[in-house]
Amino acid sequence: MKEKDAATVLTIDGREVRVTHPDKLYFSKQAKVSKLDLVRYYLSVAPGALAGIRDRPIVLKRFVNGAEEPAFYQKRAPAERPPWLRTVTLSFPSGRTAEEVVVDDAAGLAWIVNLGCIELHPHPVRSTDLDHPDELRVDLDPGPGVSWADVRTVALEVKALLEELGLRGWPKTSGSRGMHVNVRIHPRWTFGEVRRAAVALSRAVERRVPALASSKWWKEERHGVFLDYNQNAKDRTTCSAYSVRPLPDARVSTPLDWREVPGCDPADFTILTVPKRFEQIGDPHAGRNGAPGSLEPLLELADKDAAAGVADAPWPPHFRKMEGEAPRVAPSRARTKMPLLTVANSPDREAALAGLERWKGKYPEAAGLLAVDDVLVDSMRGRSSTWTRIRVNLRHVPEALRPTQETPDPDDDPTREWRKKRG
Known about the structure:
This protein folds into 3 domains: 2-129 and 242-253, DNA primase, PRIM domain (Alpha-Beta Complex); 135-237 and 290-307, Alpha-Beta Plaits (2-Layer Sandwich); 331-422, no CATH class. It contains 10 helices and 18 strands. The chain has helices at residues 35-44, 46-53, 106-114, 148-164, 191-208, 274-281, 296-307, 349-362, 364-367, 416-422; strands at residues 2-4, 7-12, 15-20, 25-27, 33-34, 57-62, 72-74, 86-91, 97-102, 121-122, 135-142, 169-173, 179-184, 213-214, 225-227, 340-346, 375-381, 386-393. α1 packs antiparallel against α3 (106-114) and α5 packs across α7 (296-307).
């Protein structure tokens, strides 16, 4: 290691990687983590982190000002990049294409972290076959007020169903409030077929534990733990194993053995604790590539649902209307409307939450009647960044006490101008 132009140059397997502004704090509130600390963390768990991204195109989610500031998504590989870094060209549902980075080694990993990539977001395909995923992703997303115990219970139900169908799931904490279960599959099925299998899995789990699990796309209809099947649609990515998440304690999305799931606590896995865990026990998912499975049993479940008249579940909003898809209309916009109000829009989540508190202070009687899951905090994805929308469902508030829709406070939707121009 040597100092050069206020940067730290690391030599990694014979390749030099320049870490600019190495002392810049990327986490400053609870954990104190600099950019160089983050790079060193990823190098300490590189075999595990690379196992989740190697030979896969990766979306660069860049936190250039650290975890406490908004990030932006960069699909296209930077023009200035090392000659040894590979790229592949992907096509998207919009018809556009992008040349994306492929990271194969620890030097490439350090290089993208230096760009501000706190999280790692690989696509579920290999660079040699960009049309056939080799991984089905089960994303367990708990709603407001849902306990971690319920998340673990639903994860174990996913495990049981997969095993009955001859598939093996590999669990990990999401690094936030949920869990991920990844399933290696033969790369024989299209994105549409993998998503269809995920829809069938989500509905089957919901039928098994209807009080705890939900396969409903619209937040107004969800309860408990949502199984987000649309994470398997083309162009969607989730954070991979050993990704650091932008939370104050620098929490890590950590691979687990199934025996750890009943008693695990996601707060135990941070940038400060995971390297020692990795050194002591290695990667619990080291064998994930050894036994890919077949989607046929899940696709048979999908066929049974279709034969029973169950329509396809809604797709993400930027996809064209799909054959067999139910009407893509949120219950709040359907003929029988749910009483929803938008109270805040902001790229800054904390500013949006502060707006919610102002609304509650303005309407304390109505706010006092809201159930936990009547407050809908949506992470909205724009063209290159995310923003927070907060809505309240007044279904438990008598009509005489219901506030009317006002201009949200704050009302900073970064996609508004883009949508106007597009329209």
